Amino acid sequence: MNVIKRSEANQRQGRYLSARHPDSTATMTGNYTDHNALDDRTIHRIGKLLLATVALVLLLGLVSLLPGIDRLVPGSPVTFMALVSAVVTIVLVGLLISLAPAVKRLVTSALDGPRLVVDDVATIAQLLVVFVAIVIAHRGLAPAIVPLLDGLAWLYDLAFFLLALPPLAVIAWQVYDSLDPMAELLADRVTAGENGDEEQ
C-alpha cells in the first residue's frame, strides 16, 4: 500500500513537470544529485564579501564622527559626509552585485530537491541580493544627488523605481511559478512522513 502511494505521488509530480516543461521531462523530474557539493571557494568568496561589507559600514560610522564632516562642500549644497557616503555606497553596491551569482551557486549547492524548485529558489535569492543593492544605492546616493536636483528630486526616485521594478517583478513571477512544484514537494514529503509513521 505504501509503495502504491509513493508511486502515485511520483506520477503526480511527473505529470505536472511534463505539462510545465514538455521537452525536458526526463531531466527535470529528478533531484539535484549531480551538482557539486558546497564548494570552499564559493563559501570563502561569500564570507570575504560579507566581511568587506561589514567593514565598510563600520568605516562609514567612524567617518561620521570626524569633526566638520557635516559641513557643506564650498559652493555646493552637498556635505562632505554625503560625498563619503556616496563613495562607500558605490563600493558596497558593487560588492553586493558581485555577491549575487555566488549566492545563487551556494543556494543551488545547499538545497536538495526537484530541480525546478531548487532553480526557482536560487534565482529568487540572487535577485533579492540585487534588489537590496538597488535599495541601498537609492538611500546611500540620495544625500549627494538630491540636493543638486532642486525641484526635480522626484526624477531621482523615479529612476530608482524603474531600476528596482524588473528584479522585483521577476521575483514575484518566480514565487508564483514555483507555488505548484513546491506544493507538490510538500505533499510528497508529508505523504512520505505519514507512510514512515505507518511502517513503524
UniProtKB/TrEMBL annotation:
UniProt entry keywords in alphabetical sequence: Membrane, Transmembrane, Transmembrane helix
Membrane-spanning parts: 49-66, 78-100, 121-141, 153-176
Name assigned to this protein: Putative membrane protein
